[in-house]
Amino acid sequence: MPEHPLCRLDELAEGQSKGIVINPASRYADLVLVRTRKGMYAYRNRCPHTGAPMEWEPGQFLDLTGTVIQCGIHGALFRIEDGYCVSGPCARQSLQAVALIERDGWLIALDPLERAGG
Predict the structure, then answer these.
(1) Which domains does the chain have, with CATH numbers?
(2) Cβ 33 vs Cβ 19: under 8 Å
(3) In the chain, is it the N or the C terminus that has fewer CB atoms within a 10 Å radius of its CB?
(4) pLDDT tens column, 97-107
């Protein structure tokens, strides 16, 4: 299973999100990475409503409260812990999760190109 180092664990503080480019030809981040006190979470950067990338500014995926992922296009809100849409045009759908492991201070995605469609 292909692995892709995403970032050092200390590069993403608790309560923050980050966009990760996997495919060098991508115009937007391929993955959404979020760190909470409960852990690290990664999802494909595609809203289930339209398939569009979700950041409302580069690297910004959380709403103003920092408690949910927010699609910047139509305002859909997703739980960080499981990517489930709790509000918006894609309610009851989910973001596509990407499996993560931590190794030697790095956050690594398992098979991210398959998950990110690339």
Answers:
(1) 3-115 (2.102.10.10)
(2) yes
(3) N
(4) 999 999 999 99
